[in-house]
Amino acid sequence: MNPVIEARGLRFHYDSGFEALRGVDFRLEAGQNVALLGPNGSGKTTFLLHLNGVLQGEGELHVCGLPVEPRHYVAIRRKVGFLFQDPEDQLFLPSILEDVCFGPLQSGLTQAEAEARAKQVLEQVGIRAGWERPPYHLSGGEKQRVALAGILAVEPEILILDEPTTHLDPPARRHLLELLQSLPQAKLVVTHDTAFAKALCPQAAFFEGGRVQAQGSTAEIAARFHWDL
Known about the structure:
Belongs to the ABC transporter superfamily. The protein has about 230 residues and is α/β, with parallel strands linked by helices. It has helices at about 45-50, 75-80, 95-105, 110-125, 140-150, 170-180, 195-200, 220-225; strands at about 5-15, 20-30, 35, 60-65, 65, 80-85, 160, 185-190, 205-210, 210-215.
């Protein structure tokens, strides 16, 4: 089976000259959940930004069998769904329903088709009423669920989550965990929340100095690099 993400010798330096990625080798299989652990500045977010072409470095990188290069950006960006650390960065339309409809409409669905899909995924994430409400009226956990619904509405093959528990209280963290566990997509989760990582991701990769220093079970990697409290 072909991996959904495969990087070989991926390198990238910023205009300042700082080399953020120094030969990253990484592989993610379909349906696999992997946590990306490591200190701030180790290259995790830089790596994620290569997966939909926001940044482009040197080396080999394929997503869902496509080389990550400009001619494939549109197709790749439909396959990779990003959930940002702050869901407010993804919610910008006057109502919940309009926000979740945005992606399907951009991908060519009719208004009726987009609304049907939006309602389906809102039900799936547990937002079953009040779809006419403005997103800013929602709690942090509800905003996270609506942002995730907007991603799921475009039917990605990969979910990428950047510090998804930062703004969530313990019940909202638990609800997000249960929801993500129920989804079939492959997932990459950048987090410092080791308990959440262990619960969601059987496997982890540890970034340090712009490289993947180790891969293995999440519990093993957290223990090896003293990444628990």
